[in-house]
Amino acid sequence: MSLPANKTSLLESFFDQRSYAKKELLLTEGQRCFEKFFIVKGCVQLSYLRQDGTEQTLDFALENWWISDFMAFAHGGISQFSIRAVERTEVLAISAAHQHALLEQVPELHAYFHLMFQRAYAASQMRLRYLYEFSKEELYLHFLRHFPAFTQRVPQYLLASFLGFTPVYLSELRKKFVS
Amino acid sequence: MSLPANKTSLLESFFDQRSYAKKELLLTEGQRCFEKFFIVKGCVQLSYLRQDGTEQTLDFALENWWISDFMAFAHGGISQFSIRAVERTEVLAISAAHQHALLEQVPELHAYFHLMFQRAYAASQMRLRYLYEFSKEELYLHFLRHFPAFTQRVPQYLLASFLGFTPVYLSELRKKFVS
């Protein structure tokens, strides 16, 4: 879902345009989260640190998606997640304070965010079903079928982390199904 | 989050007020979903049918929450979930067509739905983290600590299904932690 085009110049004054190098952090777990990010170009991963110190990837965002720790963003709280650039990434960042001011000036944007979050929440309902319903192999095949571009773009070790696999197991599945 | 009070009479003309008996279905998996539900009083469960014919509970909604299959609701599609009353439940139901007309008349409601879906999506981000991070025992203790009222209200076999436990395992955990 893209931003309303006729509001572009007004929007620009509220957003901070930024570039992140591959593997650079947009948001760090344990620090205050006061921004959300619109991905203009690139790809980011949402993750948290497991107790053993490794990163568990929970989500990705590609072009035209929003991403943040939305619980922390809503309350200016401490982030439970990190967000890291998977490749070189350009974003529009907006702080909660700027968003508040923007929505006062352009209340029509609530309609855009209503649909955007409804879509995100709907996707999370489906994802929950797949997590309960599918075996690891089925999860991988579902992912291959529904997000082929994604599977090519995201490094295999991140895809494995996202699917809850070891890299070795993912590599075995790839040999079995991608020939 | 409650509905804006000053719009109550207008809202009533768009909503269908309904009562459901315990265990009655509000929405049936496999049928077209054209409504979303605001829980006025009571409790409902969102579930899908596993291949073995048993119900897997994925979510609950209590008073002042909205629930639907939001992917199906957004597109008038076939529901991937059933919604069933856990106890006697009163709802306000609104069809997608009525919501469209209502939002034309009261566009301020987009702000309400924006916040409501942001909150729901934020909760689903946290839930995903807990599903990856916690052991079954930790999941149960987290649930007990954060949703004590809920744990008393929802029948144990549904709570077990929601947490992905067998009823026997949940009963063992209860003996261990609730004394």
Structure characterization notes:
The two termini of chain A are 34 Å apart. The first copy, chain A, is of the alpha+beta class and 179 residues long. The first copy, chain A, has a four-stranded antiparallel sheet with strand order 1-8-3-6. The first copy, chain A, has a four-stranded antiparallel sheet with strand order 2-7-4-5. Chain A is 47% helix and 23% strand. The radius of gyration of chain A is 17 Å and the shape is globular. Chain A has a domain at 5-107: Jelly Rolls, CATH 2.60.120. In chain A, β4 and β5 form a beta hairpin. In chain A, α7 (156-163) crosses α8. Chain A binds chain B through residues 46, 48, 50, 56, 58-59, 69-71, 73-74, 80-81, 103, 107-108, 110-111, 113-114, 117-129, 131-133, 164, and chain B through 46, 48, 50, 56, 58-59, 69-71, 73-74, 80-81, 103, 107-108, 110-111, 113-114, 117-129, 131-133, 164.
Taking pLDDT < 50 over at least 5 consecutive residues as the criterion, the unreliable ranges of chain A are none
CATH classification, class level of the domain at 5-107 in chain A: Mainly Beta
Name the quaternary structure: homodimer
Q: Outline the biggest β-sheet of chain A.
A: 4 strands, antiparallel
Pfam families (chains A, B): cNMP_binding
InterPro entries (chains A, B): cNMP-bd_dom, cNMP-bd_dom_sf, RmlC-like_jellyroll
Protein name (chains A, B): Crp/Fnr family transcriptional regulator
Domain Cyclic nucleotide-binding (chains A, B): 18-105
Write the layout of secondary structure elements.
The structure is a homodimer of 179-residue chains.
Chain A lengths: L7 H7 L1 E5 L4 E3 L7 E7 L2 E6 L5 E7 L4 E2 L2 H6 L6 E4 L3 E7 H10 L3 H25 L2 H11 L1 H6 L2 H8 L3 H11 L2
Antiparallel strand pairs in A: 1-8, 2-7, 3-6, 3-8, 4-5, 4-7
Helix pairs in contact in A: 7-8
